[in-house]
């Protein structure tokens, strides 16, 4: 069955806003408050630094910096000392196309957008779902992958779907769409869970499901498949898809790189390279 769908038409989605994103003080006009007189100040340059490095700057530097959270197999995860995965291969293809090296910084998922805004990275590739909330702080490329939130439970659990999460303790990865779906602060989700427990790593929540410390985990479907694959006799993924989400890479607001990324993503799709990368990491079904 073909689960992966690539629709390069940006179908803007929805309602799953993201809570845990830090503040967005990206401007650096620290002393504008004091009645200063140097009128022709550096507004222009501070604007351009907010929109990230230019292609020229990146080429001169010889490397492009990606920030991610490498706890998300099959999209980004550690294999020994290496960080590998679908996003990493796509990012490498983009870097190749730009003629620069790819440098990857692995941080907490909830810190990715703040890091981008602070100019510490050129882009985010992290199986990141497009949300209206995030769009206030970053520009997304066209989407390259469709996903959904899924529920993982112990094999013998009586939880059979979202309705059964009522009153249960559910693990999520901090700052993800699974987190906002379960936390439901804005009342937009169709679920009411007992308690949300946040983890830095999806795999730790899965361990707690296995150990019986929590009742379920809500996490992206393909990541859920990988977690279950490793513990098939202990946990299972329910069939129900809780949400519809689209993954895209994120760039600083106003970045001139976004169009370039879209061009390259389209080429990767047209040439079949994207399919190739995905099937390398996804379990055949
Ligand atoms: N798709 C979800 C989101 O955008 C989860 C992404 C988590 N990614 C990661 N690399 N840990 O919130």
Characterise the protein shown here.
The protein has 285 residues and is an alpha/beta fold. The chain has ten helices and 15 strands. The strands form five sheets. A five-stranded mixed β-sheet has the order 11-10-12-9-13, with helices on both faces. A three-stranded parallel β-sheet has the order 5-1-6. Strands 2-3-4 form a three-stranded antiparallel β-sheet. Strand 2 (71-72) and strand 3 form a beta hairpin. The longest helix has 14 residues, at 257-270. The protein binds arginine (ARG).
Q: Overall pLDDT, averaged? A: 86
Low-confidence stretches: 1-47
| Inertia-based shape | globular
Strand content: 15-25%
Can you lay out the helices and strands and say which pair or pack?
Layout lengths: L42 H8 L4 H7 L1 E6 L2 E2 L3 E4 L2 E3 L1 H13 L2 E6 L5 H6 L5 E2 L7 H4 L2 E3 L4 E3 L1 E6 L14 E5 L3 H7 L11 E5 L2 H9 L5 E5 H10 L4 E3 L7 E3 L2 E3 L4 H14 L2 H9 L4
Parallel strand pairs: 1-5, 1-6, 10-11, 10-12
Antiparallel strand pairs: 2-3, 3-4, 7-15, 8-14, 9-12, 9-13
The structure holds arginine.
Give me some keywords for this one.
285 residues, alpha/beta, 15 strands, three-stranded parallel beta sheet, binds arginine, disordered N terminus
Q: TL;DR of this structure?
A:
This protein has helices spanning 43-50, 55-61, 86-98, 112-117, 132-135, 177-183, 202-210, 221-230, 257-270, 273-281, and strands at residues 63-68, 71-72, 76-79, 82-84, 101-106, 123-124, 138-140, 145-147, 149-154, 169-173, 195-199, 216-220, 235-237, 245-247, 250-252. The protein is α/β, with parallel strands linked by helices. A five-stranded mixed β-sheet has the order 11-10-12-9-13, sandwiched between helices.
């Amino acid at each position: 069955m073909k689960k992966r769908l690539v629709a390069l038409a940006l179908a803007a989605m929805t309602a799953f806003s993201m809570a845990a994103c830090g503040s967005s003080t990206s401007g650096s006009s620290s002393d504008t408050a004091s009645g200063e007189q140097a009128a022709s100040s550096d507004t222009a340059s501070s604007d351009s630094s907010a929109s990230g490095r230019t292609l020229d700057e990146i080429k001169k530097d010889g490397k492009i910096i990606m920030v991610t959270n490498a706890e998300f197999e099959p999209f980004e995860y550690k294999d020994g000392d290496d960080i590998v995965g679908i996003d990493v291969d796509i990012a490498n293809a983009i870097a190749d196309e730009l003629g620069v090296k790819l440098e990857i910084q692995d941080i907490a998922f909830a810190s990715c957008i703040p890091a981008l805004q602070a100019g510490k990275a050129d882009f985010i590739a992290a199986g990141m779902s497009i949300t209206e909330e995030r769009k206030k702080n970053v520009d997304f490329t066209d989407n390259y992958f469709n996903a959904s939130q899924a529920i993982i439970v112990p094999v013998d659990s009586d939880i059979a779907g979202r309705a059964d999460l009522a009153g249960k303790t559910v693990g999520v990865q901090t700052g993800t769409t699974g987190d906002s779906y379960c936390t439901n602060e804005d009342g937009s989700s169709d679920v009411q869970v007992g308690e949300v427990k946040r983890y830095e790593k999806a795999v730790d929540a899965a361990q707690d499901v296995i150990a019986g410390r929590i009742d379920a985990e809500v996490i992206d479907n393909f990541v859920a498949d990988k977690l279950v694959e490793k513990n098939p006799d202990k946990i299972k993924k329910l069939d129900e898809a809780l949400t519809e989400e689209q993954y895209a890479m994120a760039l600083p607001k106003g970045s001139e790189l976004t169009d370039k990324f879209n061009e390259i993503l389209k080429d990767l799709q047209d040439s079949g390279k994207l399919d190739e990368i995905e099937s390398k990491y996804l379990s055949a079904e």
